[in-house]
Amino acid sequence: MEMKIAVIGGDGIGPEIVAEARKVLTAVCQKYGHSITYTELLMGGCSIDRYGVPLTQETIEAAKANDAVLMGSIGGDAKTSPWYQLPPEKRPEAGLLGIRKALGLYANLRPAYLFKELADSCPLSAKEGGRNFDLIIVRELTGGLYFGERWTKEIDGVLTAQDTLKYNENEIRRVARTAFEIAGKRRKKVTSVDKANVLDTSRLWRKVVHEVAAEYPDIGENDMLVDNCAMQLVKDPEQFDVILTENMFGDILSDEASMITGSIGMLSSASLNESSFGLYEPSHGSAPDIAGLGIANPVATILSAAMMLRYSFGLGAEADAIERAVKDTLAAGFRSADLMPKDPEKAKGLTKVNCAGMGDEIAGRIQ
Ligand code: NAD
Predict the structure, then answer these.
(1) How far apart (Å, rounded) are the C-alpha atoms in residues 100 and 107?
(2) How confident is the model over 243-264, as pLDDT tens digits?
(3) Ligand 1, residues 264, 289, 326, 340: which to mutate, most atoms within 8 A of Cβ?
(4) Whole-prediction pTM
């Protein structure tokens, strides 16, 4: 197959980790007889430096002309970077919100999976038989509080701010269907998370999700309040298969889910629209504190590339090959710095490798 992929390296560790994902994709192409044409695009801080804005119309058009987008991460240190002296709509993160909207990427998929080899990194208390969870969060990405009207103004001498949380039934229905479709290929259970005891948008969310659930009689559905879900993720993550939720709740819960796997450097994500087009990126940020040191963990980006092959190109065997190579690399004892146990006893027999070393080990195990 010939694939056309737009690449956004971005800022901080972004270009380093994307380079390793490309290395692994090259190994997949050699093994399975595919070819890839890459188009490099600027977005985020590097686009501000070049064009004065975090996202240009040219970048949007070029992204659309490709089959998928593979991204590192954007943004800098909010305390020291000049990008954060700019008004909010000109900062790096505005580019990310802008490209999601422009490409219609309404469904964000974030798996949280505990690799057996990294079980010691899981901060949750041990459970009989060990921890063993495998869940995916489907987050609505182009509506809700982050896209509603907002303002800050002085009213009667008092500085006041307002954000608006709005959803319509169509926005809810399309992302709910995505969640049920995914559950159909997994363990057939959707947990819909809302705050229906307080919010009107959540009551509409729940009503529409129930209508969609009726279209999928073989898939179980339960509702959970967001505060309870935050607690249950820590207490008993094994109960979840697919968690379906709105934009802000998903933003927070997916970071929580990522941390219970032990390292944010392991977690991939996909943002999809109604066609097979998607933007694939790690769940973590641009890690400015370690940028340029060559010690970032590239696995989340490599696993995002696997999601890209599966969801945008229908290449399930090739995606499996990447996931297997990651597991085999961990099983062979290779660890990036963030995955090395602090306890020297537990570190015995493990080999610490840098970002490029981790990419080499994984690429070398593609079969
Ligand atoms: P972060 O995820 O970048 O970093 C949090 C911590 O995790 C840091 O200590 C970092 O070193 C570590 N870390 C993250 N990824 C790692 C990896 N692959 N390997 C090893 N360690 C890793 O979060 P932050 O510090 O809150 O944000 C930094 C910047 O990233 C901000 O500008 C933020 O807006 C941006 N950001 C971008 C995205 C995105 O592009 N989608 C997402 C989240 C944050």
Answers:
(1) 10
(2) 999 999 999 999 899 888 877 8
(3) 264
(4) 0.91
